[in-house]
Amino acid sequence: MLEGLPGLAIILLVAVLVAFIILAIGNDLAPKTHDSPGKLAPYACGEDIPPTKVRVNVENFFVYAVYFMIFDILGFVLATTLSGPRNLTLPLAYAAASLLSVMILTTRWKR
What we know:
mainly alpha
């Protein structure tokens, strides 16, 4: 059971050593820059824009999530039942119900 552990430890040690060597070489080759006041500014343009509270409209997100869910399930049902159609009434009924629910959501969303 322990016969592969010394080899695994050596491989891990070599991998960590190679990673540190690559990091050291990259650190030496990287250009050395000094932080300027413009670099430390919150925006690249240098304007002081006051932070505002972000208002998220959860209702619009919910409507899009419901649309996605309806079409995702509809696509799954149609893809799995139309490959070997024995009975087309169930997928067609589900597609009609999905279309009806999308129409209802669309009329309610426009209000």
